[in-house]
Every structure is written in C-alpha cells, then in structure tokens.
Design brief:
binds FE2/S2 (inorganic) cluster; NADP_DH_HndA-like; NADH-quinone oxidoreductase subunit NuoE; alpha+beta; iron-sulfur; 4-stranded mixed β-sheet; NuoE_N; oxidoreductase activity
Amino acid sequence: MEHQQTCSSADIAEADEKLEKVKHAIVQFKLMKGALIPVLHEVQDIYGFLPEPVLQVVSEELNLPLSEIYGVASFYHFFSLTPKGENVIHVCMGTACYIKGAQAVLDRLSTELKVPVQGTTEDNKFTLEATRCLGACGLAPVMTIGEKVHGRLVPNAVPKILNEYN
Ligand code: FES
C-alpha cells in the first residue's frame, strides 16, 4: 500500500497555531512559582499528550532541564507522553465496580479492541485505561468513553457499546 506523508500548509499552520498557544501559556505562567505543571496541563490540553519537541520548547523557555520535565510528566498519572486514541475508555477498578465484575468488562474490552490496558488501537480510535473510582458507584460496574458514562455493565454489552463509536 502506498503511503504518502506530506505536510499541507494547513497542517503547518495548525502546528504553528498550537505552538503559539503553548508559548502564550508559558508567558502567562513563567513568573509563577511551580509554572511547570500548569504549562504541562496547557500542552496536554492543546495536543492531547506531551510531545517531545514541545517539551524541548518548554525546557528552553522555562529554563528547566528536560530530565526534570520528564520526571514531573511521568510522576503524575494525568500526563501522557504518548498520543491517545480518539476515544479514551476509562474502566473503573474501584472497589464497588471491582466487586461487581469490572475485571471481566475490562478483559472483554481488551479482547474486542485487541489492545492491553494503556494500549491504543491500530486505527487510533480507542485508548483503553483502568482507573480509580469515577464517583458513580451506584451504577457499578462503570466505564466512561469520552464524556459519556456507561453503567451496570456486563461483558456481553461491550461489542454493542463499542459499535456506537464506529
Ligand atoms: S468504584 Fe467504580 S464508580 Fe466508584
């Protein structure tokens, strides 16, 4: 299969626009103590994860070693150093959900999507994650896909739910 990888001027303009937003955030937080975390939040909001070339810009602008930035980025679970799929699935593994069979739901998702936990499907459509209590224990077992909450899950419901996103 022939695969053409070209950058259109629209792609470049979009990349520039994103980087401008990052630089704007850096200016906004630069003088604050502990500027790194809010800046990383902005980068993640803008890109969906923390791309290395952007972290290099952050490192230069905040005058912080890249190793320190990676240390912070990997310490906090809400930062991601790899791109995520279009739809992020969070399966709750909190006590209430676990007791009600969350593991079997997670396993079924993993089988259907053919990815391990923390994995992203080949078509980039889904990222599968296990998470702590989502605060909807009355609906256990629960998962969210993007903003949508799916409750009282059983493994056999998984294919139908995934189909809604295809
Ligand atoms: S334990 Fe799953 S929502 Fe609370």
